[in-house]
Amino acid sequence: MKKINRIFKLIALSPLLFSHFVSASDEWTFFPVFTDDSWQSEASLSATAGYMDIGNSVAGGGATYGLQLAFNCPVFTIPGDNVILQQINLNFYDNNDLELTILEINPHYFWNVSDEVRFGVGPGLGYIWTDTNRGKDPDLWAGQAGFAIEYRKDSLYASFGSRYQWTESKTIGFKKDEDMDNLLTTIKVGYNF
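Request: output the structure for the sequence above.
Response:
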């Protein structure tokens, strides 16, 4: 009976425990881009540079570069002060006679650390175009999970992040059933609109 009372007390107190998270907005908004006049994209465009470590015998590690477009999620907003940020990344990798072009969509849930700094985590979906001088050049679907720390001050956008990506296995070059699973760590500098 004591255990049940504790559970009821916890349930009764839970709105107080989570009130901080719902202080700014107390409801979900679907398609705020169309339904909420106060919605703002808070878009940023940045150049990216990083290092990708591919754990297979085809490629290995190497430098990457690319672009990122980030904006507040237009599909839904969540209760509270935190945001879901959509990040669309286009990255390029060229090492050991293998070129990769990687397109990713990474929605991240971001917590505000201060007025300028926030921390986010989330999943992602990617598509990889391969080009090798040796054998087959398959295209691959990928899923990923990662984190990011970003800084926004006036028109300056800066970010540091890392993600791990799992890909499907196909014949790449002359290697059968290889995947392009990789760890990518990047820095990003750009412009807030």
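Helices lie at 2-18, 32-35.
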